[in-house]
From TrEMBL:
GO terms for molecular function: kinase activity. InterPro entries: ATPase_NBD, ROK, ROK_cs. SUPFAM superfamilies: Actin-like ATPase domain. This is Glucokinase. Pfam families: ROK (PF00480). Keywords: Kinase, Transferase. Belongs to the ROK (NagC/XylR) family.
Amino acid sequence: MKLVLAIEIGVTSSKVGLVNQYGDLQAKFAVDHDLTRLIPNLFEKIIDGLEAIGINYEEEVEKIGIAIGGYVDHMLGIIRYSANLNLTNYHLKEVAEELFKKPIFVINDANASALGEFWTGVAKQYDSIIFYYVDNGIGGAVITEGKLAPGARGFAGEFGHGGGVFQKNYPCSCGLTGCVEPMSSILGIANHFKVTFKNKKNHSAAHFFKNVEDITFKEILEIYEENNQPEEITVLLQEALDPLIMHMATMINALDPEAIILAGGLTQLDEKLIEIIQSSIKKYMIDMFAEELTIEIAELGNDSTMIGSAYYALNDWKIF
């Protein structure tokens, strides 16, 4: 069996890996972008990079899986909208196949990350999961009965967006109100702390921070651990995460998964994150189902998206 070339297109650079049929990452390297010629630049630097590590591209690579953030039409390989890369209706599959001369399979990055965990990571023991990737933004995926549910056009899993009842405090960059992302992403959490301290000068958690106007999620984590996870900060984290937890409860009630899998920068909270979710979600679920809820933290780290995009390519969409 030949190898799958896996490409995870980021904002300023892309991660590149070679994955075998067992989900083992054989090699990986990074490629800096030239946004004026995104795909041609990737092609040239990837071929050079493969040559540098002794890989014969023509003979050893069979397929290519590409993961990218945004609204991805997985069937046609078209990026309908990617804000970070300023792409609209970009025919990625067509452009890439002209250069790489190999079959190209394009998938949303959060969906790819979920597939990676499902194939070789923490979720391999389950048939049905709901996957959340929470970092600067919030994305996700649904895998049910062993199959990814990407939606009719591949847009499923944009959990961070969709106005409504999840929160009323912060507007979203997408233009809607009530979205989960502006409060429960790691940027949203930091902003919630700053706004709270601005509105409540004498808040009990404020004294832990030197500069309450310039708080980052990294700083919150550091102070939280250094002070043995004080209750005052826990309460603020619970408030910020409540929209996400409400979303999880809605998805669980609708889809009845075996487990919730969490990935991204938010998981640096580790077991405390699971504890907060399990205690808070009881407000939105029948007690019996809340007590039976399984929550796991992803284990493949930054490699999950490459491994998942390779899995997607290997299966030729047959699992979908």
